[in-house]
Amino acid sequence: MIRAGVFGAGGRVGKLLIEDLHNENEISLGAVYVRNELNFSIDPSVLVTNDMATLLKGSDVIIDFSLPEATQLLLEQAIEHPTPLVIGTTGMDVHQMNLLKSASESMPILYATNMSLGVALLNKLVHMAAKTLEGFDIEIVEQHHRHKKDAPSGTALTLAHSAAAGRNLDLDAVRVSGRNGNIGERTKDEIAVMALRGGDIVGRHTVGFYNDGEFVELHHTATSRNTFSKGAIRAAKWLVGKPNGLYSIQDCLELA
Ligand SMILES: NC(=O)C1=CN([C@@H]2O[C@H](COP(=O)(O)OP(=O)(O)OC[C@H]3O[C@@H](n4cnc5c(N)ncnc54)[C@H](OP(=O)(O)O)[C@@H]3O)[C@@H](O)[C@H]2O)C=CC1
Ligand SMILES: O=C(O)C1=N[C@H](C(=O)O)C[C@H](O)C1
Known about the structure:
It is a single chain. With 256 residues, the chain is α/β, with parallel strands linked by helices. The chain has two domains: 2-111 and 225-252, NAD(P)-binding Rossmann-like Domain (Rossmann fold), CATH 3.40.50.720; 117-222, Dihydrodipicolinate Reductase, domain 2. It has nine helices and twelve strands. The protein has helices at 12-21, 52-57, 68-80, 94-103, 117-132, 154-166, 171-174, 226-239, 249-252; strands at 2-7, 27-33, 47-49, 61-64, 85-87, 108-111, 137-144, 175-176, 191-197, 203-211, 214-222, 245-247. The protein has a seven-stranded parallel β-sheet with strand order 3-2-1-4-5-6-12, sandwiched between helices. Helix 3 links the parallel strand 4 (61-64) and strand 5. Helix 5 packs parallel to helix 6. The longest helix has 16 residues, at 117-132. The two termini are 28 Å apart. Bound molecules: NADPH dihydro-nicotinamide-adenine-dinucleotide phosphate (NDP) and the ligand O=C(O)C1=N[C@H](C(=O)O)C[C@H](O)C1. NADPH dihydro-nicotinamide-adenine-dinucleotide phosphate is lined by residues 8-14, 35, 65-67, 69-70, 88-91, 112-115, 150, 154, 228.
């Protein structure tokens, strides 16, 4: 039995991970990290700790849905105590992403801004559409619940990277993240990534390709947050036993 450790256990996704792990037979909940006190009930056999080294040593794989600064601390500790990591936290900066890449030299790490099968496929479709629909304007809109802290979503940025790659463009050079005032006409290569926040929207992404006379819009809507927790559990089972390195959700789903 694989022992999973959950980092971010008290969060929206973390709580679902704990529930969903109960229904698994190859993997079970071994340990949870909590910063302060545990504010929910948990099977007494599960190790509850506020010490990251103890979490790492007591787990065969760790699933992380937390905040960028917390993931950074986890990665720093994991370099000292290498353990396979499934990381779903979004909003990481360049330094944190570089840390993640260098940590993956010491352990297998699967990093995915979206753990759903639908978005994994959507990234492939977006790459293909961006390449095929030459000259179409690309615009991305994401919608999430009012509690989400980072913007635009990690998924929207990954989709923007897929679109830019399909056009051989450098996303940093063409990304637009807002429009206001007398900004002039849209430029040919720009890729806009816009964020809307409200209510309890689990996650909705639209990638539009607009031309004179026609447009194509590709949508993905997550209707349940369990899509992410179940996807992360599937990724954790797949990751255990893999060689050190950085893996994507496409690797796990054999969509690469
Ligand atoms: N890749 C994917 O498929 C998905 C990714 N996400 C991403 O996952 C992340 C978490 O989302 P969500 O569950 O909604 O967020 P929540 O805010 O509900 O949960 C965040 C968790 O992180 C913990 N945390 C915060 N700071 C620290 C810290 N310094 N040290 C340790 N733990 C800390 C919190 O602990 P405490 O309870 O003590 O405050 C909490 O348990 C976000 O980045 C989100 O974008 C979300 C859904 C899907
Ligand atoms: O914070 C969320 O809720 C979500 N975050 C991820 C992201 O930033 O892309 C994935 C999902 O859309 C939900």
